[in-house]
Amino acid sequence: MAPEEDIGRAIIGAAIKVHKIVGPGLLESAYEACLIYELGKLRLQVQRQIAVPLRYEEIVIEQGYRLDLLIENIVVAELKAVPAVLPVHRAQLLSYLRLGDFKLGYILNFHVVQMRDGIVRMVNGL
C-alpha cells in the first residue's frame, strides 16, 4: 500500500476527532491548529501555509500559491469552513496537486454536521 494512503487515513481520523470535539462554526485557522496538533501526536510531519513557487514558461513566481497543510511532504490538505465545497475548491486542489506533483490531496470542510460529509479525496493522475 502506498504511504499516501496510510497518511490519508490518519488525516481523516484526525479531522473526524477534531470535528467531534470542537464542532462546526469556527475559523479555518482554529481547525488548522487542532488538526496539526492531532497529526503531530501521530508523529506525522506537518507544514502549514506553505508558499510554493510557480514556474510559468521562463519565469518563476516565488509565491505562486499556498498550501494549507502538507503532510509528510506528500499529501496536501486544504481546510475549509464553508457551507458547501464548490467546484472551484475541487479545481483549486487539483491544480495544487498537478503543479506540485503530489498524488493525493483532501479538502476538509469543517462546516458540516458530520465530518464524513465534509471530506473530499482527490487523486492526481500524474
How would you describe this structure to a colleague?
This protein is an alpha+beta fold. It has one domain. The chain contains three helices and five strands. Strands 1-2-3-4-5 form a five-stranded mixed sheet. It is globular.
Strands in their spatial order, largest beta sheet: 1-2-3-4-5
Distance between the termini: 18 Å
User: pLDDT under 50 segments (min length 5)?
Assistant: none
Number of helices: 3
Structural class: alpha+beta
- The total count of strands amounts to 5
- The average pLDDT value, as a whole number, equals 94
Order of helices and strands: HHEEEHEE
Helix residue percentage: 25-40%
> Can you tell me the overall shape?
globular
Q: How many domain modules?
A: 1
Rg, Å, rounded: 14 Å
The percent range for strand residues is 25-35%
Describe the largest sheet: 5 strands, mixed
Features:
alpha+beta; five-stranded mixed sheet; 3 helices; globular
Précis, in short:
With 126 residues, the chain is of the alpha+beta class.
What is the secondary structure topology, with strand pairs?
Elements: H1 3-22, H2 28-41, E1 46-56, E2 59-71, E3 75-80, H3 87-100, E4 104-109, E5 119-123
Parallel strand pairs: 3-4
Antiparallel strand pairs: 1-2, 2-3, 4-5
Helix pairs in contact: 1-2
